[in-house]
Design a protein that fits this description.
Layout lengths: L1 H16 L1 H27 L5 E3 L9 E2 L1 E3 L2 H4 L1 H16 L2 H5 L4 H7 L1 H11 L4 H6 L1 H17 L1 H4 L2 H11 L1 H11 L1 H28 L4 H23 L5 E3 L2 E4 L7 H15 L3 H10 L1 H14 L4 H10 L8 H8 L1 H10 L3 H5 L3 H5 L2 H24 L27
Antiparallel strand pairs: 1-3, 2-3, 4-5
Helix pairs in contact: 1-2, 2-13, 2-14, 2-23, 4-11, 6-9, 9-17, 11-12, 12-15, 13-14, 14-23, 15-20, 16-17, 17-18
């Protein structure tokens, strides 16, 4: 019993003797927790391009031999493919969406193209062109119906989305940041509180353990644990779960399904699957453009020259069509309503993959930074960076005697 009291008395004495040093431990741990989590978030999205020495860099791998590229920019292809598969597989039917277009309305919007082709290319008088415009209008209307029936062969949604993400690797990151804004803030800020609580434990251990390396090891644990705890808190549990009489509890991201559905659908409809980008894909993708040309040629009585001319002029006249197509396809409400109906397990897959890809790397990076911060705490506690097991032993010399001192007995 007396030994236990003596241990606590010794700890109390240590605290009184260096209370400023020990008070700094949870404060520094709080900063370490915040900073490691902040850095983890930055490492997910930045830098867009690889920064470091190009000694060993692999496509799709963020970490090089000496350098780093953001997880999302590095894995843009893989992530965007998974995302577009989710969109086309669970959220919308391409055939059903394009079926909403009114062929006669699209033909009406493209009527100016008929006059342009007739006047500028064939020098056909305007009166003659106008006289037969109804015929070409019928052809265009019938062609739109053909497009609707064959839209899968004419529009490769997967390639359209993935190519955009690869051309602008920041775009996918912006989508994830918009959808997970609150979760990313939580991931950063929670490090402050988790770090402080773990720092209090770290301080208590330092009072009872005489090894200064407990601070560095503790710092590594703080950096590891704050990242791990925050990531778990965001996505676990997936389904509402009661713990005894408490709850139900659910991951923070899962509780915001309606809000995230709104953000995701709005961003996707306004920045990714727009009429302009869909038609660009149809007309420029080598596979789909060939199908588009053949379908058009059939409607133009087999005339390759006429089909070539229409394809050439079409991009100059689509500006009139895009507003109507964007409005009529109604991708934003379609995506939103479908996403709101997703199960929790399905919805968790919307954001979690960006963390899963290199979750272990992020957690280990936090541990390393925490360990380095612990060295700072060790320096504060000991006054120097000392490796006790490497410390050289020096031979003690006898004390020097003042001059004229009597010889030692």
């Amino acid at each position: 019993m007396s030994n236990g009291i003596g241990v606590f008395a010794a700890a109390a004495s240590k605290f009184r003797g260096s209370w400023r040093t020990y008070i700094c431990i949870p404060l520094i741990a709080a900063f370490v927790g915040w900073f490691t989590n902040y850095l983890a978030v930055q490492m997910i999205f930045y830098p867009i391009n690889y920064i470091g020495l190009p000694l060993w860099v692999r496509d799709g791998v963020p970490l090089g031999a000496v350098g780093w590229r953001g997880i999302v920019p590095s894995k843009a292809k893989k992530m965007s493919e998974a995302m577009v598969d989710m969109v086309t597989g669970q959220l919308l039917s391409v055939e059903e969406v394009f079926g909403r277009l009114e062929p006669k309305k699209v033909a009406q919007l493209l009527h100016p193209m008929i006059e342009t082709i007739g006047l500028e290319t064939y020098s056909i008088p305007k009166a003659v062109t106008s006289k037969f415009s109804f015929l070409y209008g019928s052809v265009l209307s019938a062609f739109v119906k053909d497009m609707q029936k064959n839209i899968v062969e004419l529009c490769d949604i997967r390639k359209c989305v993935v190519e955009q993400m690869m051309e602008d690797r920041e775009l996918l990151g912006k989508l994830f940041q918009k959808c997970g804004e609150l979760e990313l803030k939580f991931l950063t800020n929670s490090g402050l509180w988790f770090g402080f609580l773990l720092g209090v434990i770290q301080m208590i251990v330092a009072l009872f353990v005489e090894n200064p390396w407990s601070l560095s090891i503790g710092g590594g644990i703080v950096g590891f644990a704050t990242n791990w705890l925050a990531l778990k808190w965001i996505f676990c549990p997936v389904n509402p779960t009661k713990i005894g009489p408490f709850g139900p509890f659910q991951g923070l991201f899962l509780t915001r399904q309606k809000a995230v559905a709104q953000e995701f659908s709005q961003f996707f409809a306004q920045n990714v699957l727009t009429s302009e980008k869909l038609f660009k894909s149809i007309l420029t993708d080598e596979r789909t453009s060939a199908n588009f040309f053949e379908l058009l040629k059939k409607r133009l009585w087999g005339s390759a020259a006429a089909a070539t001319l229409v394809v050439k002029e079409l991009p100059n006249h689509l500006a009139n069509v895009h507003p109507y197509v964007d409005k009529t396809l109604a991708l934003e409400p379609t995506l939103r309503k479908s996403m709101e109906k997703m199960t929790s397990v399905q919805f968790e897959r919307v954001l979690h993959p960006i963390f899963e890809e290199d979750e272990f790397t992020l957690i280990v990076a936090g541990a390393i930074l925490g360990f380095l911060a612990g060295l700072v705490q060790q320096a504060i506690a000991t006054g120097t960076f000392t490796l006790k097991f490497w410390k050289r032993k020096t031979k003690k010399l006898p004390p020097t005697q003042p001059p004229n001192a009597p010889p030692a007995a």
